[in-house]
Amino acid sequence: MKKKWFKEYFSIPNLMGYFRILMLPIFLILYTHAATAREYAAAFAVLAISFLTDFFDGRIARRFDMITEFGKALDPMADKLTQGTLILAVSSRYPLMYALVILFLLKEGYMLLMGIYLKKKKHVWNGAQWYGKICTAVLDVGLFALLLFWNIPLWAAKLIMAVMAAFMVFSQIKYVQFHVRIIREG
């Protein structure tokens, strides 16, 4: 029993997931205190290591048959924590970004609560919908643009933030419609 518990929570892919989560506050501190190109590069190096662990953890889990139920929850949680950290990092530079922090928290809080509710009711769906994936991609691209090009004109930064907000709202509306349909169909 103890060996099974250890394999569930301390497999190599799960350790990589923990490591990834631990890298986030380091990135956030480095990025928010960066003033020179070298300091920004250090922050991005930490972020790159985090992304590499994300890239390899699933491949290792599948290749060496280390897929665990906990790992299936840990990986998307680490993804959302990474997105949240990137939003906070950008917010340190662009205060308008705090509106996206609120949208992100509302959207992800809703998704968490609906996931719990639907699981209790034994409703099952196979992961993210196309609009959720598009929203994630737009959010990731926009965040990377704002992180990498820290001296872009304010109007360009506002445009990127507006596009990200629009996709988050669109995705949220579509998920509410989707969940209502699932609940009605039983």
Describe the structure.
With 186 residues, the chain is mainly alpha-helical. It has two domains: 1-92; 95-186, no CATH class. It contains seven helices and no strands. It has helices at residues 2-9, 12-32, 37-63, 69-91, 98-120, 130-148, 154-185. α4 crosses α6 and α5 runs parallel beside α7. The longest helix has 32 residues, at 154-185. The mean pLDDT is 89.
Name the features.
flat, mainly alpha, 7 helices, 186 residues
Layout of strands and helices, then pairs:
Layout: H1 2-9, H2 12-32, H3 37-63, H4 69-91, H5 98-120, H6 130-148, H7 154-185
Please give the domain count: 2
How many strand segments? 0
What's the story with the biggest beta sheet?
none
Helix percentage range: over 70%
Average pLDDT level:
89
What order do the SSEs take from the amino end to the carboxyl end, as H and E? HHHHHHH
What are the low-pLDDT stretches, counting only 5+ consecutive residues below 50? none
The number of distinct helices, counting runs of at least 4 residues, comes to 7
Radius of gyration: 18 Å
So what's the overall shape?
flat
User: Structural class per helix/strand content?
Assistant: mainly alpha
Which percent range describes the beta-strand content? under 5%
What is the CA-CA span between the terminal residues?
37 Å
